[in-house]
Amino acid sequence: MNKIDFTVHHGKGFRYFREDLGLSTEQMAKVFMTTEKEIKDLEEKPKLTDEWLDLITETMHIPKNAIRCFMPAIMDKLKENTTIINNNENTFNDESSMNSEGGVNGVNNGGITNEAASLHKVIEMFYDTTKELKDTITALQAQINDLKKK
Predict the structure, then answer these.
(1) Residue-wise DSSP of the chain
(2) Are 53 and 67 in contact (CB under 8 A)?
(3) What is the pLDDT of residues 15-65, one digit of tens each?
(4) What are 84-117's pLDDT values in tens digits?
């Protein structure tokens, strides 16, 4: 099993969401009243200042943690899985494989559509789950410390 790199990279998160929103570096430079070079430099930085994080997330209307906790390896894995899902959906929606009842090879596929959950929802769920896990770990550590004191 391949290990996933859980390294956080703010700049790559910024670039990911900028591209996802269809914004160019030139447009971002105008919005932030800076140069394209500075935008590109920001996208290369593993850690951005809180000031930049606030400005970027407020301007792009995304949660701060979406960039603060951005892990490129996780996103690459999600993209890979999304590609597999999309390829499978395209196969199911190919009319040549459908029978007269609207199914594929005799199976009704009415529930299979191209309406996969948006990547933003997946990311949001990932960060919510991560927060819950951190809270659980903190609570367990507190319990362990209490037991050690007894």
Answers:
(1) -PPPP----HHHHHHHHHHHTT--HHHHHHHTTS-HHHHHHHHH-SS--HHHHHHHHHHHT--HHHHHT--HHHHHHHHHHHHHHHHHHHHHT-GGGB-TTSEETTEE-TT--S-PPPHHHHHHHHHHHHHHHHHHHHHHHHHHHHHHH-
(2) yes
(3) 999 998 899 999 999 999 999 999 999 999 999 999 999 999 999 999 988
(4) 445 544 444 444 444 444 444 444 444 333 334 5
Burial class of residue 9, CB neighbours in 10 A (0-12, 13-18, 19+): buried
Point out which residues pair with 104 in neighbouring strands.
Answer: 98, 107
Radius of gyration of the chain (CA): 21
The one-letter amino acid code at 49 reads: T
Task: Name the one residue in this structure whose structure tokens are 């993209």.
Answer: 79
pLDDT at 108: 40
Q: Which two tokens stand for residue 72?
A: 């490129």
Residue 110 has, within 13 A of its CA and on its CB side, a CA count of 4
